[in-house]
Amino acid sequence: MSGKWTLENRRGDDVSNKDLSVWASALLVGFMHITLAWSIESADWVPGLTILTAIVIGGVALGAVLSRLIWLPVLVAHGWSVVIGFGATLFLAARILPIFESIDPVWFEDASIYARMGLVRDWYIGWLRVAAGEQLDGTLLQIDMSRMFAVVTLALLLWLLSYISAWFAIRYISWAGATLPSGFALLFNLYQSQSGDDLAYLAFYALCALLLATRTNLALRMETWRRDRIQHNPDLEFDFLRDGLILALLVIGFASILPDRARSEAFYALAERWSTVSGRAQSISERYFPNIDYPSRGGGNRFGDSMPLTGAIDLASGPVFDATLESASGELPRYFRMAVYDTYDGTGWRRTAEDREIGGPSELDLSPDWALTVPVTQTMRTLRSDVKQLYAAPQPDSVSIEVEAEVAGGGQDVLAIESREPLGAGETYSVVSRLPVPDETSLRDSDEREDPEWVRDRYLTVPDSVPQRVLDLAAEITAGTVTRYDAARALESWLQSNITYNEQIPNPPSDRDRVDWVIFDQREGYCDYYSSSFVVMARAMGIPSRVAAGYTRGELQPETGSWRQRDDDAHTWPEVFFPGLGWVDFEPTASESVVQRPGTPGEVAEAFEEDDLTMPPQLEREDVLPDDELAPDVPIPGDPELMEPERSVVRRAPPTWLVGVLASFLVALAVIHHFLWRKPLAGLSVSERAFARLVRVASWFGLRPRQSETPSEYGMRLGGTIPEARNEISTITRSFVVERFSRRDPADASRVDAAWTRIRWALTRGLARVGFRRLRARR
Question: How far is CA 197 from CA 49, 191, 382, in A?
Fold first, then answer.
């Protein structure tokens, strides 16, 4: 729009008539979104993410082209983008069908591309029906359908994200609209994937974003200079970009030399602030994306803050870590714990830390002085890269490296321990744990003591979602027991005997409490369901308990004397609190043997002595990975198993990265609303604002004011084109003309606002009709 009575800076409408190098902006936007696509591909959430690079390139290219076609109505351009994006996604998804196990290779070779695209469409719609509650035979097919659903959905989201960013960068010359949505998506993905390349991706994205900021700022200045007829050097644009590149490299270089701790803290603190999602969002994510390969189970890196109870799992068998154990008493840990979960909501578990404690080697005293514990020293050798959450036998007391511990109960309750710096493959650390070795008599006698307040407050809650019949069953199972220990053993025995172990269970109904569903309907499941059922029923009987997650003690390596844990050793189990003795594990999972304990106190169950806290010499980080023996973050030479570790195909936590991408679109909408709708109208009167809105909406559909046209003539033309809105258009136009070009008072503000409120939807419908008619005429 142009003319002497223009109220808004419509710089995007005539950008095609300027000699701006818009394709430089498109190139930078493309690089940013390729970085986002590669970061998601490297996270390897589901098979088939290799199509994302082509998707974002296509989205940016289409956005750049359509944003230059000023004559094309905006809504028509966006509609074509949706249609083309959906078609491109189906086409690319159809080419990756062979990676799914339920696809017949013979059928794939014989089928046309349209038949393959039709199958992708059918899978996508089919999974929507399954997620809505319909039952479908074939667990393998359900897994493949859910993963294809995730690939297609993510591809569509990235197509829209890249298209919108290119549109903002070129049509509206808006740096915020071009960078912030994809930047948030990148941050979410890197935080959730715990990628070792997070800083590299962020650095390159930041470089492109800073260059785009330079480019955008220069473009806006050059427009101002042209409007004011100010001459400038033609080489100025090159000089700006060169200096912007130098400045961007200096900023990124300075950030790269900051201490690792400072960079890590800043990144993860910001990511954690934005990574919290509501229970409703988690429920939706869990329902539609259940088979995401989240690195919190079987990936060897971490157990997430949440553990939803979902459908089938498929654990790989790649090596995760080696543990060398030293125990003077001869007692060895049954489990290596990584995290515990305290809060159940009917669909899964959450870990809710109250505080974080930071300390160097052996500085933190992590475990209270519980009775009947023995010292066990563990030297852990990581076999995966980028490990932060540490493996340790229950009740860890001290660690040989600098760590950050999630704690509750005033520091007496350790929920998870993380290294302050990510550990690479082959690095080692040592832990001394106060391993509980109580006998049955001592466990029964502990009932004479009272539970601490922090235990009662945190580990006895049962949500209202748990049906009464679950509580009644718990009471029935424990009837006749006198002590806490006997009640726990009764629950353990009942679950082992009455629930069948099965990793290939269907997704639970979205509206059902998971414990109630597995006990009374499904009657089969895996360790997550056994431990959850145990804890919920134990709490119902007033027994403080929680779910622990980690690995069972794996396979002894005769040549080294260490124990090797693999992906399929990942496990969850319940822990019950006994006053004075601490947390004691139980094993209700039918595929595992129950924990055997001595009946009476023995010599092995002696009090923990401080002199027993021996820590083996710790290798320095630079000595762990000599260049001629082991490169950082790569498989360990000489061990054939570790040359090509198997990929785990298991999901645990809801894919918060996807919620992050959706949140990025919300940010994009907020940016659109602010920069395109609100900001240009700031400071205008009611009449001016209503007329500006009228002109703006009409211009979207090709009805811009002509150079020779007055506001009144323009209003009459609009009224003739859209007769159903003629009266309101006349009211708004007259009020604007009176206010701008006469000394009379304009129409009452409430009348003008009411006129705009009445016509905005009728105006949009009428203009859309006009726009489509014009488009057909052009053809």
Answer: 17, 11, 18
As given in the structure block, the two tokens for residue 570 are: 């990942």
- Report whether 571 contacts 578 (CB < 8 A): no
Centroid of chain to Cα 473:
37
Cα angle, residue 617 at apex, residues 613 and 622 outer, rounded to 5° = 140
Given a contact cutoff of 8 angstroms between Cβ atoms, the answer to whether 375 and 429 are in contact is no
**Surface-to-core class of residue 223, CB atoms within 10 Å of its CB (0-12 exposed, 13-18 middle, 19+ buried):** middle
- Give, to the nearest 10 degrees, the angle between helix 198-227 and helix 236-256: 150
DSSP letters, 227-251, are HTT----TTHHHHHHHHHHHHHHHH
Judge whether residue 417 has pLDDT over 90: yes
pLDDT of residue 701: 67
Beta partners for residue 423, in sequence order: 387
Instruction: Find tokens 């390349």 and name the residue.
Output: 197
Residue 767: band (very low, low, confident or very high) from pLDDT cuts 50, 70, 90? low
Model pLDDT for residues 200-240, shown as the tens digit of each residue: 787 788 888 877 887 777 666 666 666 666 655 555 555 55
pTM for the model stands at 0.59
For residue 320, which of 387, 415, 393, 399 has the smallest C-alpha distance? Answer: 387
Q: Compute the distance between CA of residue 655 and CA of residue 657 in angstroms, rounded to an integer.
A: 5
* pLDDT above 90 coverage of the chain, percent: 33
Stretch 544-558: mean pLDDT, rounded?
A: 94
Across residues 631-652, what is the average pLDDT? Answer: 41
Q: What is the mean pLDDT of residues 497-508?
A: 89
Tokens of 86: 């959906």
A 10 A CB-CB count for 279 gives: 13
Look at 140 and 712; give whichever has higher pLDDT: 712
pLDDT, tens only, 285-315? 656 666 565 444 444 457 878 888 887 787 7
The C-alpha R_g of the chain, in whole angstroms, comes to 32
In whole angstroms, give the CA distance from residue 525 to residue 492.
15
Q: How far is Cα of residue 212 from the mean position of the Cα atoms in its chain?
A: 27
Encode burial over 527-541: b for 16+ CB neighbours within 10 A, e otherwise: bbbbbbbbbbbbbbb
Question: 592, exposed or middle or buried, with CB in 10 Å at 0-12, 13-18, 19+?
Answer: middle
Structure token digits, residue 404 = 């950050």
CB proximity list for 273: less than 8 A, separation 6 or greater: none
The model's pLDDT over 120-167, given as tens digits with 9 standing for 90+, comes to 998 888 888 877 666 665 656 777 788 888 899 999 999 999 999 998
Do the beta carbons of residue 62 and residue 163 sit within 8 Å? yes
Contact 570, 528 (CB under 8 A): no
**Closest C-alpha to 311, from 177, 508, 464:** 508
Tokens of residue 595, six digits: 């924990």
Residue 678: C-alpha distances to residues 15, 180, 182, 670, 778 (Å): 21, 18, 22, 10, 33
Tokens of 90: 């189906």
Pairwise CA distance, residues 78 & 74, whole Å:
6
Report yes or no: 385 and 346 within 8 Å, Cβ to Cβ: no
Give 332: exposed, middle or buried? Use CB within 10 Å, 0-12, 13-18, 19+. middle
Is residue 611 packed enough to be buried (19+ CB in 10 Å), middle (13-18) or exposed (0-12)? exposed
CA distance 314 to 47: 14
Among the ranges given (160-164, 436-440, 481-485, 507-511), the one the predictor scored with the smallest mean pLDDT: 507-511
